[in-house]
Automatic annotation (TrEMBL):
Residues 332-427 form the ACT domain. It comes from the Bacteria. This is Bifunctional aspartokinase/homoserine dehydrogenase. The keyword Membrane does not apply. It comes from Lysobacter arenosi. PROSITE patterns: ACT, ASPARTOKINASE, HOMOSER_DHGENASE. Its EC number is 2.7.2.4, 1.1.1.3. Bifunctional aspartate kinase and homoserine dehydrogenase that catalyzes the first and the third steps toward the synthesis of lysine, methionine and threonine from aspartate. Its cofactor is a metal cation. The keyword Iron does not apply.
Length: 849
């Protein structure tokens, strides 16, 4: 684009003299929207210039009309439909204003009818008419906008850009003849005055005086050209998005609207696929330093994005990410190219000759190969041209050949803040690596404003989301799924709901509940569910039948850096899925004891998957609920201590029952109370049979490196034989059958001044046992309260006087707190790879209409 004269004026030094506003077709779909647009021009600029696109869909309709006329088809019905649409809008906008607007439109529609007839009849002017005809939409639109504005304030002028704007075809699209256009505008203003003006976008005149258009996206370009010609202080492009977003929000739900960016950043993003701005648009405003706002017509209360000389000074290294799909890599490999001048020139000369545009270039310092990325639809042509150019070198074996790899996309990270900031590429490539996306080629210019990575097109969305997460989200962002909102799961959701705002604020921990499942249904949510409302969703219309495979892949997602599943069920079937989840990189936290105490092969698979770089596995709450039992054991062992034995009380339910049971209240009634308080397992027989405690002992023993399984534990079962095999409901109905034997046992112990306590023991030689013991009343275990667990670790360091962990060992709240602690431990261990600031500024994309 040829240079516009005049240096950028200092626009901060004076009040706004002239503000150019541009409305796109999406903002001008009907009469109501014209009025809405007119109502937005409430700035105090002394001159307001409004550049309009055609009504939504009209340019496409005109192009289709030209196509029909060329093909000899009947174009009249479509022409009439277009006319009626404009008449209706004119009627609504200019109802009482006489016939002036209608007759002007009628006259112009008649001109279009004649032009279509000429194209249909293959008149000698047909080509020129066909090129200019799509521009009529802007002419009509300017009339409608003029009517809408005239109703709000008098004195609006209307300028047909074809009267002043002179253009000629250039290498990069239509180029402006600035001098001729400026002179013509001055003449026009001298003739019409310098009031507020409505201008047709998209249209112009060529050097021969023929009407033409600026090509696709030409209306934004027109607005920038007129901002330059009017020497405006500001240009606002009103559109249907809130501004320039950090990434395409259809692909990245987390995309944010950027408050500001530099021309250079906007240009890079525009070149690399951000649809909101065409690169050509920027040059006329950049040359005169005119600030450009992108704002949403339907949400004018939002500030939009300001594009100006300066970048946002918030220090964020990357402003936006863009993706170009449907690309291919052309690679030339050759030993004979090493150190030989001119190979690159020959290659790019060949591509130029074939009319192929190169999007990205990458060459290793060995010069052994050079690759470039081109559009897929030009790839074969590009390959053939390079093969011909290097035919002699290939014949001489100086070059090995030219390869074409299709199915490529280019992901670009753009930002002025990248200049001189170490670690940007590391974060980008680290994000891609985490999402298991392979970088096929990488390019960064010495300008350091853009890092481009060629990737497989099938990975494009995943890559974009991963890269976005790497720059915009806290590295401690976790996508969370919760299974089993029963007693513990519910308590956890409430704790999450209460703690999350503070956690986010104080420590940058960003836990997003995105999935919830019970044994029947699940609810998956892309953006995140408020935990306190989550359970209601399982019964709502958005719930679906549970499918834990889909559940896990949703939680794993692609746009959050980490994923975590919390299993609050007591299901062995769910525990069986842990190895797969961990291997897929999903962290697992659980109070479910089946994984830690179940089948040895599965236990080993879980530990292996976790150790070999998959997700992390934490299950502190399986023993002692919220007490730091496992943590204490791990610390002892990790610091070199040696475990001799473990003994104590490991059941909250049994501790509570034996603390309360004094013969005055039936044992069965106490069991029912314990169940109602949420202390028991879903089936209380797991507690009463000693199985639950046996599981805990196995978990601790394995944590200490012992190979112990449930079958190895000697277990005393308190459940009468007749109740062991019946259903859970029948067991609960017949609970009273436990009363007599338990009362007898209590009386026998009481007679000996002893108290009943349920104890677990793991010996130095590996023997494990659990059961009820009548202890002297002075024994430490008889001085516990409520659900207290008491766990004694005898070790080399704590040989004479064991280390004791004591406190409440059951109940939804304390268990949930233990689970939450594990979640936080994992989240806190996920650090930023290179410690650079993230970009938090901006309006979240969820705010988008
Ligand atoms: N209650 C307590 O004090 C403690 C409990 N635990 C453990 O916490 C877990 C939960 O206990 P509670 O909340 O008391 O049990 P609960 O019976 O109240 O809740 C279990 C939940 O798991 C869901 N569920 C069961 N099978 C499922 C499957 N196959 N798929 C998806 N969801 C399934 C159920 O729908 C229910 O929502 C158990 O593993 C228990 O051993 C651990 C320490 C203490
Ligand atoms: N039912 C268990 C709950 C904790 O694991 C118990 O009572 O200890």
């Amino acid at each position: 684009m040829p240079s516009a004269d005049a240096a950028p004026p200092d626009r901060n030094k004076r009040a706004v003299q002239c503000h150019v506003h541009k409305f796109g077709g999406s903002s001008l779909a009907d009469a109501g929207l014209y009025r809405l647009a007119a109502g937005l021009l409430d700035d105090q600029a002394s001159t307001r210039v409004v550049v309009v696109s055609a009504m939504q869909g009209v340019t496409d309709a005109l192009i289709a009309l030209v196509g029909s006329a060329r093909a000899g088809q009947d174009w009249a019905p479509a022409w009439e439909a277009l006319r009626q649409r404009h008449r209706a809008a004119a009627d609504a906008l200019d109802g009482d204003g006489g016939r002036a607007l209608q007759s002007a439109l009628d006259e112009e529609f008649e001109s279009v009818r004649s032009e279509l007839a000429a194209i249909f009849g293959d008149h000698s002017d047909a080509e020129a008419l066909a090129a200019a005809l799509p521009g009529w939409g802007e002419v009509w639109s300017s009339r409608l906008m003029h009517a809408a504005l005239a109703a709000t304030a008098p004195g609006w002028l209307r300028l047909d850009a074809r009267d002043v704007l002179v253009v000629h075809p250039g290498e990069m699209g239509m180029a402006v003849d600035w001098s001729a256009s400026r002179t013509r505008l001055a003449e026009w203003r001298a003739q019409h005055g310098s009031g507020h003006v409505v201008v047709t976008g998209f249209v112009a005149r060529d050097a021969q005086g023929r009407a033409t258009t600026l090509g696709r996206n030409g209306s934004d370009y027109s607005a920038a050209i007129f901002a330059n010609l009017f020497d405006a202080d500001a240009l606002t492009i009103w559109t249907d998005v809130d501004g320039v977003l950090s990434a395409d929000p259809r692909l990245v739900p987390e995309a944010v609207c950027l408050p500001s960016m530099s021309y250079a950043e906007a240009c890079e993003l525009a070149y690399f696929g951000a649809k909101v701005l065409h690169p050509q648009t920027l040059a006329p405003v950049q040359q005169r330093g005119i600030p450009l706002w992108i704002r949403n017509t339907r949400r004018p209360h939002l500030p939009g994005t300001l594009i100006s000389l300066k970048s946002d000074p918030d220090g964020a290294p990357v402003k936006g990410l863009s993706l170009v799909r449907d690309m291919a890599i052309i690679e030339l490999v050759g030993n004979g190219m090493v150190g030989v001048p001119g190979a690159a020139e020959r290659l790019f000369g060949a591509l130029r000759g074939a009319g192929v545009s190169v999007t990205m270039i990458s060459q290793g310092s060995s010069e052994h190969s050079i690759c470039c990325v081109v559009r897929a639809d030009q790839a074969q042509r590009a390959r053939d041209a390079v093969a011909v150019a290097f035919a002699d070198a290939i014949a001489d074996s100086q070059a090995q050949g030219v390869t074409l790899t299709d199915g490529i996309a280019v992901l670009a990270a753009v930002g002025d803040g990248m200049v001189g900031t170490p670690g940007v590429a590391a974060r980008l490539l680290g994000g891609l690596a985490q999402a298991r996306v392979n970088a096929r080629a990488i390019a960064q210019g010495a300008g350091e404003r853009n890092i481009s990575v060629a990737i497989g097109d099938k990975d494009a969305t995943r890559a974009l989301r991963a890269a976005h997460a790497a720059f915009w989200l806290s590295p401690q962002s976790l996508s969370v799924g919760v299974i089993g909102p029963g007693q513990v799961g519910r308590a956890l959701l409430l704790q999450l709901s209460a703690a999350l705002p503070q956690l986010r604020k104080r420590s940058g921990l960003d836990l997003r509940l995105r999935a919830l499942a019970n044994s029947r249904t699940m609810h998956l949510d892309e953006r995140g569910i408020e935990p306190a409302d989550a359970i209601a969703r399982l019964d709502g219309g958005a719930a679906e039948p549970v499918d834990l495979e889909r559940f896990a892949s949703h939680v794993r997602g692609e746009h959050l850096p980490h994923a975590l599943i919390v299993d609050c069920s007591a299901s062995p079937a769910v525990a069986a899925l842990y190895p797969r989840w961990l291997a897929a990189g999903i962290h697992v936290v659980t109070p479910n004891k089946h994984a830690g105490s179940g089948d040895w092969t599965r236990y080993s698979a879980i530990q292996d998957a976790s150790r070999s770089g998959g997700g992390r596995f934490r299950y502190e709450a399986t023993v002692g609920a919220g007490l730091p039992v496992m943590l204490t054991l791990r610390n002892l062992l990790d610091t070199g201590d040696e475990l001799f034995g473990i003994d104590g009380m490991l059941s909250g339910t049994l501790a509570w029952l034996f603390n309360r049971f004094d013969g005055s209240v039936a044992f069965s009634q106490l069991v029912r109370e314990a169940q109602a308080l949420g202390y028991t397992e879903p089936d209380p027989r797991d507690d009463l049979s000693g199985l639950d405690v046996a599981r805990k002992l196995v978990i601790l023993a394995r944590e200490a490196g012992r190979v112990l399984s449930l079958e190895d534990v000697e277990v005393e079962n308190l459940v009468p034989q007749a109740l062991r095999a019946v259903s859970r409901d029948e067991f609960l109905a017949r609970l009273e059958e436990m009363d007599a034997p338990m009362l007898a046992r209590y009386r026998e112990a009481d007679a000996q001044r002893r108290a009943l306590r349920h104890l677990a023991r793991l010996d130095r030689d590996g023997r494990a046992s659990v059961g009820v013991v009548a202890l002297p009343r002075e024994h430490a275990c008889c001085h516990t309260r409520l659900t207290d667990n008491l766990v004694q670790f005898s070790t080399r360091r704590y040989a004479d006087n064991p280390l004791v962990v004591q406190g409440p060992g059951a109940g939804p709240d304390v268990t949930a707190a233990g689970v939450f602690g594990d979640v936080l431990a994992i989240a806190q261990s996920l650090g930023s790879p290179c410690g650079m600031p993230l970009l938090h500024a901006g309006v979240p994309a969820e705010a988008h209409a």
